[in-house]
Write a structure and sequence with these properties.
Radius of gyration: 15 Å
CATH architecture: Alpha-Beta Complex
Number of strands: 8
Mean pLDDT: 95
Shape: globular
Structural class: mainly beta
CATH topology: Nucleoside Triphosphate Pyrophosphohydrolase
CATH superfamily: Nucleoside Triphosphate Pyrophosphohydrolase
Oligomer: single chain
Number of domains: 1
Strand content: over 45%
Helix content: 10-25%
Length: about 150
């Protein structure tokens, strides 16, 4: 197994809605997701989360809270990822489309799970209930979950 890739994922909720971005490039092309990416060498997690949110949505995070940490393994891909999920508590700006992502607000009841990563429907409900969690997902390729676990942190 190769070295673990550390990433961030920022989710913004406001007035019963969630802001998601449609990936325009890369592995997630065509999927809706939160805003985030790889943590650079010598970069703190929160610093990376703020940078990625700004790059992908145009929003400046003034206050963030780390609410979830999940490991992802992709069988046959020699890839292990750690995703650090942040709740954006306070932000400044108006979402704007960039090179990588097209942001759009969705009603919480209309989250487009069918056009998202398969794991999202497992952990988004915990996030939306304001809970903290850890988890692990093992994929066969990128579309089929073959094993998973989620634990709420009290």
């Amino acid at each position: 197994m190769s070295e673990k890739i550390i990433t961030t994922n920022c989710l913004v909720c406001n007035d019963g809605k969630i802001l998601l971005g449609l990936h325009k490039i890369g592995a997630g092309k065509g999927r809706w997701n939160g805003f985030g990416g790889k943590v650079h060498k010598y970069e703190f997690l929160e610093e990376a989360a703020r940078r990625e949110l700004m790059e992908e949505s145009g929003l400046l995070a003034e206050e963030l809270e780390l609410v979830g940490v999940m490991d992802f393994e992709y069988r046959g891909k020699d890839k292990l990822m750690e995703v650090n999920v942040f709740r954006v508590i306070k932000y400044v700006g108006i979402p704007s489309e960039g090179r990588e992502m097209k942001p759009e607000w969705f009603s919480i009841s209309e989250i487009p799970y069918k056009d998202m990563w398969p794991d999202d429907e497992y952990w988004y409900p915990l996030f939306l209930q304001g809970k903290k969690f850890t988890g692990k997902f093992i994929f066969d390729g990128y579309n089929k979950i073959i094993e998973h676990s989620l634990t709420e942190i009290k």
